[in-house]
Design goal:
23% helix, three-stranded antiparallel β-sheet, alpha+beta, 75 residues, 3 strands
Length: 75
């Protein structure tokens, strides 16, 4: 099942004020109208646009996260 829409929740405030703010989360809406939390991420390490997920499956969305995270960790 493919993702039709994605919500990326609010980014944390700048440090040090945002030290304990929650990390942004990616929440996907699928073709059947169901919504699912996919993952949270550290915005100082990777970034996403909601449009990147449209048309992907849940597995492909996780692969996208892993690819970006791996690229960051190797840099």
């Amino acid at each position: 099942m493919k993702i039709t829409n994605t919500l990326i929740t609010k980014m944390p405030r700048p440090m040090p004020e945002g030290m304990f703010d929650p990390m942004p989360e990616v929440i996907a809406t699928f073709e059947d109208g169901s919504k699912k939390y996919l993952f949270a991420f550290f915005p100082d390490e990777v970034s996403f646009r909601a449009s990147e997920f449209v048309g992907l499956t849940e597995e492909e969305a996780h692969t996208l996260f892993q690819r970006k995270d791996t690229t960051y960790l190797r840099s």
